[in-house]
Amino acid sequence: MQDDREANLAMKRRRRRAARLTMLLALVCAIVALALGAFQLQAEGLNQFLYRAPGVGASK
Amino acid sequence: MITGIDGRIDIVTPAAGTHDDAPPVDGAEHVGRGRALGAGHSDTRLLPLLGIWFFRGLVVIPFVLMTPEIIALILGRPDSVAHVSASTADVLGTSSLLLFVMMLTVTPVHTMTGWRWHLVLRRDYGVAMFFAAGTDLTLAALTTGDTFPGGPVARIAGHTFLVFGTLSVFLLIPLTLTANRRAMHWLGGHWKSVQRLTYLLWGTILIHLAFLFGLSSIFLDAIAVSVPLVLMRVPPVRRWWRTARKRRSHHALRVSAAVLLIGLFAIGYTQLVGELATKGSAAFVQRPPSD
Known about the structure:
Chain A is mainly alpha-helical. Chain A has helices at residues 2-44, 46-50. Chain A has one domain (2-50).
């Protein structure tokens, strides 16, 4: 009985850790994408970063 | 108890603070002869099987449409870089959006009809979207130097719309990595919380399209398909629909609502499919629009 409860708690802890790890990966992915954007914003300036000429990025 | 990405039902310890509100996990989901129709279970009925393979087959379309241009690029043919540069966003970008929409449609279809045979498609479309969007990002980084001077980073993050497109692809990484049965057991009841990143992804995709198209064309189509999909996910709506379906009540109201929602969805969806058909066929014969 005691062993079952401990095993259950250990499993819950492991799953919580796994969820944290996955969310951390998602956070890192988001930060990398936003950091690339911030780097380009600094390099090109706001106008260039915001302005999209017709046909750029998609043909419409 | 959670319904897996492939429609199978798993019993796992729920995560603290989460509740099981996602699709269809009631044991009362029976079809016809009283046999539970778990999509992942060995189901020998021909029609659902054909349906699954038909809808699965659709995921190869974007790759087939881009194959001639990619082969030409690999072979170093003249103008191949310009062709891929002109086609990749139109074909693979639109395809990624369509695959995302089809993935999001799986749950509302279940809520409306009670079908389970198609639940397996949720994972297939999600994974296919990752590959389509990943290929789009890779090809954009390699070939769009004509429109985005300044190297690969400028080509994937040099504008507001590019940043949100890249962010969307990057958010697909944890979602795709956890889109399997092993990850479901590894995460237990937390799996659903992780998969809710899909809603964040939905937001970043709409922002990407808003920056790219403004209040016109594809952005409005994406809003048109999103509205019914969001409405069918609102918990009171979903609960009401499921209960009414099981009790066989409010038939006229359900039919009217379904016609309205499907109609609005179809308006946006057909436009997106039309866009892919036009640009995709042009890419397939290596005559993209900018030629």
